Amino acid sequence: MKTSNPKFRGTPGPWRVDGHVYRSGHVQYTVVSISGDAVGCAPVAEVLQYNPRPMPAERVEANVRLLAAAPDLLAELESLVETFDPGKQSIYSFAREQIDAAKQAIEHIYQSNRQ
How many domains does the chain have? Predict the structure, then answer.
């Protein structure tokens, strides 16, 4: 899924995880964009297992999968905020605190995106 917000200047999703197994047995994970905008699965991020200190392989894989899900998570969060905004539909006033927190998280992404 691709975020519909034009303020997002990051690499468009979806993203996927690519892994390379070295002779030593450790795996280097790369998050790549598989959108039509990125030719040849452009790299978005690499997750290191041994820098600055070793991390369990399961944790590294969980981290990289979370990173790869970021564009989908952002798009779904924006959709939920738009749908359940208590400012637009008072029936959702019970969720004002959670919706406001989600809006702050989205704004934090876009503020980081401007730098």
Answer: 1
**Structural domain range at position 43:** 15-114
**Side-chain-facing half-sphere of 102: CA atoms under 13 Å:** 19
Q: Tokens in use for 65?
A: 């999968």
**CA 72 – CA 79 distance, rounded (Å):** 11
Residue 8, in any domain of the structure: no
Residue by residue, pLDDT tens for the chain (115 residues) are 555 566 777 888 889 998 888 888 778 899 998 875 555 677 889 887 776 777 888 888 898 999 999 888 898 899 888 888 888 878 888 888 898 999 898 888 887 655 5
According to DSSP, the residues that pair with 17 across neighbouring strands are 31
